[in-house]
């Protein structure tokens, strides 16, 4: 978008991109177990720019994830592993021109390795319980964090349809999203924990119908 105000020229640009590539392979053995392997690449970038006759302001931000996920499952249980590489560019001003110059913040690289398992047991056609755990090793900025996230839920299915589930779980978060909405707008950006910010965790209790 180009526009002129008196003798001042302004060029504004709001450009964002999304990328998703994945490849999956599934194999079911003679015992009924299913092996699912997925390799994927996801990316998001925002290239906001504001240009005037004597300066230019950019707010670049991006995140690229390269991952591999393997799940071995049967009807009542599953085990698996996640390997993820994060390449994150937090949003920061890049200013150039007559007044001053400022370079953007350096990219952040992080590695996440996780092992997980869960098991569901049916006491009857109406009542079941499910227990699981996810163990994660996260490495960024020369520091490593280890977490253990357990989960337990109970489900009751009504004869006339529908069910109610009570769940309690512990969750750790290593990537953060910053913004003023929950809509996933281009003004929002991500950054990785370990670069001056510790990972966060929460304990949740829910009841759903």
What do these coordinates show?
The strands form 2 sheets. Strands 1, 2, 3, 4, 5, 6, 7, 8, 9, 10, 11 and 14 form a 12-stranded antiparallel beta sheet that branches. Strands 12-13 form a two-stranded antiparallel sheet. The chain has no helices and 14 strands. Helix content is 0%, strand content 72%. It is elongated, with a radius of gyration of 23 Å. By secondary structure, the protein is an all-beta fold. The protein has strands spanning 2-5, 8-13, 16-28, 34-51, 55-74, 77-89, 94-97, 108-122, 127-140, 143-157, 163-173, 175-178, 189-192, 200-208.
What keyword list fits this structure?
209 residues; 12-stranded antiparallel β-sheet; two-stranded antiparallel sheet; mainly beta; single chain; disordered N terminus
Topology:
Layout (H helix, E strand, L loop, with lengths): L1 E4 L2 E6 L2 E13 L5 E18 L3 E20 L2 E13 L4 E4 L10 E15 L4 E14 L2 E15 L5 E11 L1 E4 L10 E4 L7 E9 L1
Antiparallel strand pairs: 1-2, 2-4, 3-4, 4-5, 5-6, 5-7, 6-8, 8-9, 9-10, 10-11, 11-14, 12-13
Which band does the percent of strand residues land in? over 45%
State the low-pLDDT regions, or none. Answer: 1-10
Range of helix content: under 10%
**From the helix content, strand content and strand pairing, which structural class follows?**
mainly beta
N-to-C CA distance? 48 Å
- Mean pLDDT equals 84
Number of strands: 14
Shape, per Cα inertia axes = elongated
- Name the helix and strand elements from N-terminus to C-terminus, one letter apiece: EEEEEEEEEEEEEE
